[in-house]
Specification:
This protein is mainly alpha-helical. It has twelve helices and three strands, in the order αααααααβββααααα. The chain has a three-stranded antiparallel beta sheet. β2 (about 170) and β3 (about 180) form a beta hairpin. α2 (about 25-45) packs across α4, α6 (about 135-145) runs antiparallel to α8 (about 185-200) and α6 crosses α10 (about 245-260).
């Protein structure tokens, strides 16, 4: 009986890691997850695995960096990709190894500027909900994290931007460009609770449609106020990392990526114009975006 040859390079790599390298199942799964991200990218770009060049890999890494992914996560993915292509070269699937000159980003000695889900929960849990701005502050943290917004986008949010029934918020980003971002049920519930407090504020007529207001002046909340809030909550929660509102945006992107979300979906939700340095994509199916965040964001698990 002729020997059956497995022509699937990823499956062969998996067997190599398990049988020859004797790696644990969890480690092998992590390698395959990193390769899966590259496979998705190559599929979207219509590039065959045996046609990958160093320029293609550089564009893939650039796509990860464009998504506000922390350097540690990018370095881990690059390491997995280099292992994969080294195997393909040794195995004879490719004639040369395009990953030889691929360099991972430097991580440095500091902890990555990303929070864990538990740390974000800790920040929310230290908020005094009995105060006149407790529900507001908790909604701010939740929206920054579950929607991945910039602080300027948060401060500019309007009540008319919220489409609760559809599960989206309209966001005005850089250059006054608008996008629709899925919003979690938890964030919508917190907004509803905050609205009870908000209606007790003295609101100037010009700001009636602004979502987040100063409880004392009834004016739009400033970016510096949000910065100060984040730093205070982190300190109260015992978090020693130096963080800012953008840390929650980094965490949003990193957690989605590590959860297996599609790169283009993350790109669209963050409001980035391009996923690589060479091509711009603007037509993203909204139902797909919502499914990506529902399936891969920790807040929906």
């Amino acid at each position: 009986m002729p020997k059956v040859v497995n022509n699937n390079p990823v499956e062969r790599f998996q067997q190599y890691l398990l049988l020859e390298k004797s790696l644990s199942a969890n480690t092998v799964e992590a390698y395959l997850d990193d390769i899966g991200k590259l496979e998705q990218y190559l599929h979207d770009e219509q590039i065959a695995l045996d046609k990958v060049t160093i320029d293609v890999l550089h564009n893939f890494v650039a796509a990860l960096n464009d998504l506000d992914i922390c350097p540690r996560s990018v370095a881990r993915i690059v390491s997995g990709i280099k292992q994969f292509f080294s195997f393909l070269f040794i195995d004879g699937y490719i004639d040369n190894n395009p990953s030889e000159l691929l360099v991972a980003p430097k991580i440095g000695t500091r902890l990555p500027n990303v929070l864990t889900v538990a740390q974000i929960d800790m920040m929310e849990n230290v908020i005094d909900m009995s105060t006149a701005y407790g529900h507001r502050d908790k909604a701010i943290i939740e929206i920054l994290y579950s929607c991945g917004l910039r602080v300027s986008e948060l401060c500019g949010m309007k009540l008319s931007d919220i489409y609760a029934q559809e599960g989206f918020v309209r966001v005005e980003g850089k250059g006054s460009k608008q996008r629709l971002v899925p919003i979690s049920g938890k964030a919508l519930d917190l907004i509803s609770l905050y609205m009870v407090q908000r209606n007790s504020y003295p609101i100037a007529p010009a700001y009636m449609d602004v979502l987040f207001l100063s409880s004392r002046q009834g004016r739009p909340l400033s970016r510096i106020s949000v910065f100060n809030l984040i730093k205070k909550l982190a300190a109260d929660a015992g978090i020693t990392k130096t963080i800012s509102p953008h840390t929650l945006r980094h965490s949003f992107a990193t957690h989605l990526l590590e959860g297996g979300a599609n790169l283009r979906a993350i790109q669209a939700m963050l409001g980035h114009e391009k996923i690589t340095t060479t091509e711009i994509y603007t037509h993203i199916d909204r139902s797909m975006l919502r499914q990506e965040i529902l399936q891969h964001h920790p807040r929906n698990k």
